[in-house]
């Protein structure tokens, strides 16, 4: 089938799937899924013959056109030849998935990895050869289908990567903590942690843990994930290539919308009902604080001549994500969403900033200190561009202490 025709076919499938999804959960037809895979087997065989005995990196690049045509419910662009990272930086080009180095043998964990930006983060890491652990709160059919779709694509292009999906409730700290400790017990290494999961701008809701949901899901849950997984990542950094073990926190330029009165001094403060954009902005402000505090408190001491785990926060851009589509209600909210979508980028484009921070080879043992604990509004962007409130060290300290207090309430001991 010609490329354009194939893309149109997949796009139509996306529309039908979304229409069905609005009426309730759609159970995937595994019979059709299997037939679709069988119909492409001859093409896959031809690709494998042409690949021959190329290196993993050459093999990955030679299959990039075919593998990005259609995966699961998504239509992906056919990539242009990639320029080296350094050339991209000089020319002001954006970081593209083709710039990701070979990740064979490495392990990554992506929260919120079964839809939107997180899906493409997980997909590209796996296509580069990584073992990817997907973590999400989505319904079982959605998460399992993402796992099946990506693994099928990996098999078709002979990638060494793989994905496995785990469902957790990000608004339940005990659930988050249990999974994080399970990963530490079962995995021998963790090279990349991408904290992407979150809820969009929505009305005030309290979680079962007695916390405002924006704060717990978008921020505090990732405090727990990072703190539990950090020892495993530090052990990995001791033998992995210097500067390649990284944590990426997804923040947002909407951190600027956090209330000017934000101090993170108490649980009562974050549980105060306020505007949905302010609650979202406050949670993303917390992500910038979390990034800085982890860098200063947990990653500032390291053996001479070594590079510690790197941590950065990024803004993915104005992305038309599923959480934006499902938040708010009423005619005013609909008008706001329509206006926003006229100025947004696709999910796969939004994933590029996170992928840059997680894998860019221009960040290395020579210059890593320029990136440690920093916030970037774009790939190859300048650091220290966050709001003055986000630079306040006293409030940052308050945030860290509040996280410790909240986890003590849930676990009986402080996680710090």
Number of domains: 1
The CATH architecture comes to 3-Layer(aba) Sandwich
Order of helices and strands: HHHHHEEHEHEHEHEHEHHEHHHEH
Fraction of residues in β-strands: 5-15%
CATH class: Alpha Beta
Mean pLDDT: 80
The span between the termini is: 55 Å
Which residues sit in consecutive blocks of at least 5 with pLDDT less than 50?
1-57, 59-70, 73-80, 319-343
Oligomer: single chain
Structural class: alpha/beta
The radius of gyration over CA amounts to 21 Å
Tally of helical runs: 16
Percent of residues in helices comes to 40-55%
| CATH homologous group name | NAD(P)-binding Rossmann-like Domain
Number of strands: 9
CATH topology annotation? Rossmann fold
Family: Belongs to the short-chain dehydrogenases/reductases (SDR) family.
Biased composition (Low complexity): 37-50
Region (Disordered): 1-66
Protein name: WW domain-containing oxidoreductase
How would you characterize the overall build of this protein?
This protein is α/β, with parallel strands linked by helices and 416 residues long. It has a single domain, classed as NAD(P)-binding Rossmann-like Domain (Rossmann fold, 3-Layer(aba) Sandwich). 48% of the residues lie in helices and 9% in strands. It is built from 16 helices and nine strands. The chain has helices at 3-21, 30-39, 41-51, 56-62, 64-67, 85-91, 116-127, 140-156, 173-186, 213-237, 267-270, 276-297, 322-325, 330-341, 347-359, 393-411, and strands at residues 70-71, 74-75, 107-111, 131-136, 162-167, 192-195, 246-250, 310-314, 375-376. The chain has a seven-stranded parallel sheet with strand order 5-4-3-6-7-8-9, sandwiched between helices. It has a two-stranded antiparallel sheet with strand order 1-2. Helix 8 links the parallel strand 4 and strand 5. The longest helix is centred in the middle third of the chain and has 25 residues, at 213-237. The chain is globular, with a radius of gyration of 21 Å. The N and C termini lie far apart (55 Å). Residues 1-57, 59-70, 73-80 and 319-343 have low confidence and may be disordered.
């Amino acid at each position: 089938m010609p490329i354009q025709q194939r893309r149109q076919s997949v796009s139509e499938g996306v529309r039908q799937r979304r229409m069905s999804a609005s009426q309730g959960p759609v159970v995937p037809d595994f019979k059709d899924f299997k037939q679709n895979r069988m119909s492409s087997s001859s093409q896959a065989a031809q690709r494998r013959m042409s690949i021959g005995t190329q290196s993993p990196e050459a093999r990955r690049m030679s299959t990039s056109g075919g593998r990005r045509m259609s995966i699961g419910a998504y239509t992906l662009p056919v990539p242009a030849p990639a320029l080296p990272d350094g050339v991209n930086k000089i020319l002001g080009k954006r970081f593209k998935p083709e710039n990701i180095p070979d990740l064979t043998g490495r392990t990554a964990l992506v929260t919120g990895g079964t839809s939107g930006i997180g899906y493409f983060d997980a997909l590209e890491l796996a296509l580069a050869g990584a073992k990817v652990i997907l973590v999400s709160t989505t319904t079982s059919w959605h998460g399992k289908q993402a796992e099946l779709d990506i693994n099928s694509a990996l098999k078709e292009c002979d990638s060494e990567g793989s994905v496995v999906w785990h469902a957790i409730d990000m608004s339940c700290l005990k659930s988050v903590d249990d999974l994080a400790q399970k990963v530490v017990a079962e995995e021998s290494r963790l090279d990349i942690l991408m904290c992407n999961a979150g809820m969009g701008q929505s009305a005030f809701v309290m979680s079962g843990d007695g916390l405002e949901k924006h704060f717990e899901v978008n921020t505090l849950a990732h405090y727990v994930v990072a703190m539990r997984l950090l020892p495993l990542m530090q052990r990995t950094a001791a033998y992995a290539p210097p500067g390649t073990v990284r944590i990426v926190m997804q923040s947002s330029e909407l951190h600027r919308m956090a209330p000017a009165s934000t101090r993170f001094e108490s649980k009562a403060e974050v549980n105060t009902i306020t505007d949905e954009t302010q609650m979202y902005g406050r949670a993303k402000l917390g992500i910038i604080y979390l990034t800085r505090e982890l860098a200063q408190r947990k990653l500032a001491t390291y053996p001479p001549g070594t590079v510690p785990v790197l941590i950065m926060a990024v803004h993915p851009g104005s992305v038309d994500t599923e959480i934006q589509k499902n938040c708010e209600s009423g005619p005013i909210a609909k008008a706001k969403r329509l206006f926003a979508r006229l100025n947004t980028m696709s999910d796969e484009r939004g994933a590029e900033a996170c992928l840059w921070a997680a894998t860019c080879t221009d960040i290395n043992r020579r210059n890593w200190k320029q990136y440690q604990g920093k916030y970037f509004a774009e790939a190859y962007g300048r650091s220290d561009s966050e709001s003055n409130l986000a630079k306040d060290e006293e409030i940052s300290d308050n945030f860290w202490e509040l996280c410790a207090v909240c986890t003590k309430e849930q676990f009986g001991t402080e996680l710090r």
